[in-house]
């Protein structure tokens, strides 16, 4: 069952989304070569605390970090640890926080001095795929219109989308119905309604779509170990357009 949020609930989702974005943007700005992913996680933990929020990830199914940090061939759920960021890396930073009982979830992929044109194009394509998915998140459309739009952008650019992990509904808990695949034909699945809140999160691979989970039981990597880009926004379905909830105050009009 897909939960529709009322006006008051949307207000709280907006607040959770704003703080998620403030944290994600601030941590993203602090990422540089030489930093370990554990240091990035600690920076995120401090930011989350400063906003009076809580990590939605820490302790989720035993997850040991505050955020997920996935470098290059790591797709999602990268565990904070000793890995050092190097020039030329791409770093997916996935942040989820709980504020006043509601969850915001977003991810960005940062390029650290990347010069490889294919990698630059990969990151740009993931961002464009997310934007295309969000454009479909309006009342009256079907859920798979989002999925199809994402896949179309990624494959038209010559990349592949991950099939094994999906976006999701979000609200009082991080994962609500529905699941949102990043592939499929349009016109299928539930009709989208005003007030649904969705976390849309394309994972776009430079090489093959296949992924595997490392020994640490969390870190998802590409099978061919080529790079993957991951971006995510929490959005509210609207009558004429979606509203991006994971948007920092400086970029907002409300
Ligand atoms: N954004 C991811 C998701 O929606 C991150 C959660 S994984 C966690 O599933 F285990 F760290 F929580
Ligand atoms: Co998510």
Keywords:
254 residues; alpha+beta; Creatine Amidinohydrolase; 5-stranded antiparallel β-sheet; 4-stranded antiparallel β-sheet; binds 2-amino-4-trifluoromethylsulfanyl-butyric acid; binds cobalt (II) ion
Descriptive overview:
With 254 residues, this protein is α+β, with helices and mostly antiparallel strands. The chain has a single domain (7-251), classed as Creatine Amidinohydrolase (Alpha-Beta Complex). The protein is built from four helices and 15 strands. Strands 8-7-9-14-15 form a five-stranded antiparallel β-sheet. Strands 1, 2, 4 and 5 form a four-stranded antiparallel β-sheet that branches. Strands 3-12-11 form a three-stranded antiparallel β-sheet, with no helix packed on it. A hairpin with a 2-residue loop joins strand 4 (89-99) and strand 5 (102-112). Helix 1 crosses helix 2 (37-50) and helix 3 runs antiparallel to helix 4. The radius of gyration is 17 Å and the shape is globular. It starts with 6 loop residues before the first helix and ends in a 10-residue tail after the last strand. The model has no long low-confidence stretch (mean pLDDT 98). Bound molecules: 2-amino-4-trifluoromethylsulfanyl-butyric acid and cobalt (II) ion. 2-amino-4-trifluoromethylsulfanyl-butyric acid binds at residues 57, 60-61, 63, 68, 77, 94, 96, 105, 168, 199, 232.
